[in-house]
Write a structure and sequence with these properties.
Blueprint (H helix, E strand, L loop, with lengths): L7 H6 L21 H14 L4 E4 L3 H4 L7 E4 L7 H5 L1
Antiparallel strand pairs: 1-2
Length: about 90
C-alpha cells in the first residue's frame, strides 16, 4: 500500500480495527506533506511534557527530510502519556 500511488492514501489508511491492549496494534500511517515539520512538532511536544525519549539512528536524516519512518524510544514510565500528546 503505497500512499504515493493512485488511491494509495485511502488504501494505506484502511486497517482492521484493533482491540485496546492488542500487542500488535499499529496506528494507520499518517500522510503528511512536511514530515520534517511533523517530526519537529512531535519532538517539541514530548520535550514540553517532560518525556524521556530519544531518536534511534542518525538525527541528520530528520533535518535532511526523510521519506520513511522514524524509530523513537520512550521511557517505560512515560509511554502511557504518548497517545494523548499525539492527538
Amino acid at each position: 500500500m503505497n500512499p504515493h500511488e493512485p488511491g494509495g492514501a485511502e488504501a494505506a489508511t484502511r486497517r482492521t480495527p484493533v482491540r485496546s491492549g492488542d500487542l500488535g496494534a499499529v496506528a494507520p500511517p499518517l500522510v503528511c506533506a512536511d514530515r520534517t515539520a511533523l517530526a519537529a512538532a512531535v519532538f517539541a511536544a514530548f520535550d514540553r511534557a517532560g518525556l524521556r525519549w530519544c531518536l534511534v539512528g542518525d538525527d541528520r536524516a530528520v533535518a535532511a527530510g526523510f521519506d520513511n519512518d522514524l524509530d523513537l524510544v520512550v521511557a517505560r514510565r512515560d509511554l502511557a502519556r504518548v497517545p494523548a500528546l499525539l492527538r
